[in-house]
Amino acid sequence: MVSVFGLVVLTAALFVEERIAENETNLLEVWDQAYRVGLGGGRYLDAVALIDAYQPTEDEAWGWHQLRGTFRAYVGDADGALADFAQSPDYDVVGQNGSDQAELGRLTPSPATETLRELARSHRIVMINEAHGNSRQRAFMNALLRALRDDGFTHFAAETFHSETAIQITADGYLARNSGHYINDPVFADAVEFAHGSGMELVAYEITRAQDCRPECDGRGYARHRERMQAENLASALADDPDARVLVHVGMGHHSENTAGRETVFMGTHLAEMLGEDPLTIDQLRGDPVAGWASMQRVWNAISNRYPLIEPTVFRRANGALFGTPFLDVIVFHPDYDDIQSRPHWFVDLLGREGVLYLLPAESEAELRLLQAFRVGDGPDAIPTDQILIEPGARAATLMLPEGEFRVVLQRLGEDDRDFHVVTIP
After folding, report:
1. Do domains 101-331 and 353-426 have the same CATH topology?
2. How far apart are CA 241 and CA 231, in angstroms?
């Protein structure tokens, strides 16, 4: 039996599916409905099916892959998310690393987390990026956040936060789906819940509607305006607390330094000028085994062909300088992790998770399904601690869980969520 709320969500999804079949819809409508069904109604599975059903036009193809990859990350399909984002046109945030082949052979590696902790001791602001949809990069950010908290960092700022994020988690005691888009990746949500639970202040710095310059500005004008507004919002949040130490999480290249005089001056450059401080800027895009952009993939390929990457690693040049780019201080290079029970091993290496294998009902074998784990006591709008999309034909799935007690739920298309099991991880 479908609940009244579930019926409303399902009816809306079916309406869009019918319009998709009749070629009467467009990608923006599918994008909006996917967020309403997934983030609003908690039916991540229905949102994934809705996106998969849409046939994008040639002009819509990259936007569709972005949408699909975003939701694939939300539902634990890390490889699928990376495959979608790999469909991007070639892209370089700001410049390359400027190294020749001979120099690459003279680098000195060191463990990333330990080295970044040491570097962060002389900085009040540390900035790290992600490629949206890359849960591996979010997992490393999560691990680094915990280390920096131990070292006295007091604030966590993220592009995906809005003005109500901190208010919501404080009031409810858990992170809700409407607290920010990218937060719906459980790996990201885990970082936010740790930061809040450990006493760190959550800082929203994204441009607000009140600060939006449109329609007076065009698209490029808005991009430039957005970078400055992000910096002003961050600077304002830190101005009243000279002892604040902050990890700033950004998408793509917003934290790029030394971009004054370019067509777009990035937020990192504005912030350094406003505060008169030099932030430590960390790049993960060029150091990922599935960068998604050919110009960046060449950097990882060149490094991994010369050095064994068995953990996140940073490098120094022969003269002792950090191996980064002209615009970012240091690149973190990630290993190409193996899987454990069909889940990426970085869950274990970076987050200390434990795999719990579940056999699924035989009657659901032919269907697309979603297995979720929620902390016992969290409300109905909570983001799962973990979830994994199960393709048709699969009879088992693994959840990667931290310590705690969890309610395991199975989602099937067109049905109410089914409580499957309660498990305790000691």
Report:
1. no
2. 16
Report domain 353-426's class. mainly beta
Q: Which residues pair with 331 in a beta bridge?
A: 283
| CB burial readout 241-253, b (16+ within 10 A) else e | eeebbbbbbbbbb
> What angle in degrees, to the nearest 10, is found between the helix axes of 44-53 and 27-35?
170
**Which DSSP string corresponds to 336-372?**
-PPEETTEETHHHHTT--EEEEEE--GGGTTS-EEEE
| Amino acid making up residue 72 | R
End-to-end CA distance of the chain, in Å?
A: 35
Cut 0.85: pTM above it:
yes
- 8-state DSSP, 271: H
Domain definitions of the chain by residue range = 1-89, 101-331, 353-426
Residue 134: both structure tokens together: 């890359």
C-beta of residue 358 within 8 angstroms of C-beta of residue 420: yes
- Name the token pair of 63: 């936007």
User: What single letter denotes the amino acid at residue 137?
Assistant: Q
Which residues, in sequence order, are bridge partners of residue 340?
343
Residues 6+ apart with CB under 8 A from 253: 93, 94, 129, 266, 285, 327, 328
* CA 328 – CA 323 distance, rounded (Å): 9
Among residues 154, 132, 146, 122, the alpha carbon closest in space to that of 194 is found at 146
The pLDDT of residue 11: 36
Among 370, 366, 355, 362, residue whose Cα is nearest residue 418: 370
101-331 in CATH: which number?
3.40.50
Task: Report residue 382 CA to chain centroid gap.
Answer: 17
- Measured CA to CA, the distance from residue 146 to residue 254 in angstroms comes to 23
**pLDDT digit string (tens) for 144-185?**
999 999 999 999 999 999 989 999 999 999 999 999 999 999
Q: Which positions ≥6 away from 303 have C-beta within 8 Å?
A: 104, 107, 287, 309, 315, 333
